[in-house]
Amino acid sequence: MASLRPRRSADPISDSESSDSREGDEGWDDVEQDEEETTEVISLLDDKVFPDVLSMLAYCKESHGFDFLAVRQKLQLDFHGSVKLVNYIRHRVHEGSPVTEDISKADFDQDQFLKPVLDDDAVIIGLFDLPDVVPEGAPAAEGQGASVVDDLLQRNTQLQEELARVTAQFESYRATVAETLDQRWGDVDAAEAEAKAAGDKGKTKAGEKPVDASKYYWESYAGNDIHETMLKDTVRTEGYRDFIYNNKHLFAGKTVLDIGCGTGILSMFCAKAGAARVISVDASDIIDKARENVIHAGLASTVTLIKGKMEEVTLPVDAVDIIVSEWMGYCLLYEAMLPSVLYARDRYLKPDGLLIPGACNMWIAPVADGEYVMDNVQFWRDVYGFDMKAMQSGIWDEVRVLHWPKDRVCGSPAGFKLLDLYTIKTEDLTFSSSWKSELTADVDDGLDGLLVWFDNFFAPSRESQGVGLQSVADEWAKEDKDRVAFTTGPFNDETHWRQGLLLFKHKDGEASSAALKKGTVIEGEVTFAPPEDMPRGLIIKTEWSVAGEAKKHSQSWDMR
Ligand code: SAH
């Protein structure tokens, strides 16, 4: 549905610069210094190790009389065929059977040989760099018979084209392997569940593919931009990373479930922290990229990626020790991903298992900024001399996502909702809570709105969590070095969530209430609920009154 704004993309109702414009992108690298990357190519025919594939193949030819490139050429093997040949040879060697150049294609032309015998086999990865097989009957390429290195040099100009082709081949190889593994894990069940869930919606004619109401949502996560924005949000990504790397003992040997793995970043943090197994689920096509990212990181033997909805896939395990997920949307609950995490918590998390994050709380504070109102509301009354008041329609009805200047927050922030993720239920996500704020300065032109944001808390155990309604991220984290917390509020570095501005209705630019003195108390009740016609959207409503004034105010805003 085109009307839903993906939470992380440049947002039409946003008034602020995107966080891309911020300085300080440096510093979001992996804190762990990778050891010097060394590729170890294990000989196809014994256990000798080489720095690259070509020298290994030269060795096999010289010492074992086995010319891999010649066999590949003779059998006219494409990429898949070459992968099968490598795995077949490794099988034979493993069993102690001889490997000779008179191998026939029939010996290894079975899907089982697509599965790597060695994890991260550098020979398979190195197949990318080997010269093409010349089609039968075609004249030998210039340089054939000369050294392989010369051949590679001559073919330098074709490299781009070749790379695109082999990447595509590798993709399909990986998909084939994934499919085989999925089948082994009984993903047939998942397919059935999907068909059933879709069928339950009851709207499809026999034989027609069922409609997925969230299709637009998965599509919004399929492209690179949204993930780039999230990864470049250093407050967010470093928050997860620091918690995971600072608490490696929690991960060692554990099974972790990453819900909504996106590019796979959190899964890879967990794998590097020592997890025995990471199961990464995402329903968006981005998971195909995650698969590659995981392979390139050399973590394929630890991270298992499963494409599908959390509620519908069948995991290869009955229970997990840790669930990690970055599910938070604008104003925390927009896009309604949390129910998927709660579903997985109830179904898969061990009784003493860990949730990352384990708690969130939500804040509201009054704001006043005459300049903002002039620029964004009054502006329409005189546009090059024309009164465009029609453009103001709906202007007060939408939650505006922006990073608000901290000196325009004019009241004490009030924590109004605590989400203890270990205990909260999906039905608790539709709620009403009271809030109370005291003005921290005189407000001469009245209040202009309310600002909403949230904090996230990461604790190494349920017991040590201790988050309260008014817990402030920084202070809470300081209490214990194993904790990490971050805020999306206006007083700290901007995050890609920014804050939600609930702009009060101004009549022809007039402020919504009269001048108020420092210390005045504003009290209200705020309600969060999804719109009936759009379960991933959000309606925020609040009633409020100013101490000493009889008038009760009420207004609602939505995000669709
Ligand atoms: N973990 C990644 C991506 C977070 S964005 C990171 O931290 O960078 C959230 C991701 O969750 C999206 O890729 C979205 O497709 C996925 N997602 C949301 N709900 C899901 C569900 N119910 N099942 C599977 N994937 C889901």
Task: Give me some keywords for this one.
alpha+beta; single chain; 560 residues; binds S-adenosyl-L-homocysteine; five-stranded parallel sheet; Znf_C2H2_sf
What does this entry look like structurally?
There is one protein chain. This protein is of the alpha+beta class. Among the domains are: 27-185, no CATH class; 359-559, Hnrnp arginine n-methyltransferase1 (Distorted Sandwich), CATH 2.70.160.11. It has 17 helices and 17 strands. Strands 8, 9, 10, 12, 13 and 14 form a six-stranded antiparallel β-sheet that branches. Strands 5-4-3-6-7 form a five-stranded parallel β-sheet, with helices on both faces. Helix 11 packs parallel to helix 13. Bound molecules: S-adenosyl-L-homocysteine (SAH). S-adenosyl-L-homocysteine is lined by residues 218, 221, 227, 230, 260-263, 265-266, 281-284, 286, 309-311, 326, 337, 340. It comes from Neoarthrinium moseri.
Describe what is shown at a glance:
The protein is of the alpha+beta class and 560 residues long. The protein has 17 helices and 17 strands.
Helices and strands in order:
Layout: E1 41-42, E2 49-50, H1 53-64, H2 68-74, H3 79-95, H4 105-108, H5 122-126, H6 148-154, H7 159-184, H8 187-200, H9 215-220, H10 224-232, H11 234-246, H12 248-251, E3 255-259, H13 265-272, E4 277-282, H14 286-296, E5 303-307, E6 320-325, H15 338-348, E7 349-356, E8 359-367, H16 370-376, E9 400-402, E10 414-420, E11 431-438, E12 449-458, H17 473-478, E13 484-487, E14 499-503, E15 521-529, E16 538-546, E17 552-559
Parallel strand pairs: 3-4, 3-6, 4-5, 6-7
Antiparallel strand pairs: 1-2, 8-10, 8-12, 9-14, 11-15, 12-13, 12-14, 15-16, 16-17
Helix pairs in contact: 11-13
The protein binds S-adenosyl-L-homocysteine.
Residues 218, 221, 227, 230, 260-263, 265-266, 281-284, 286, 309-311, 326, 337, 340 line the site of S-adenosyl-L-homocysteine.
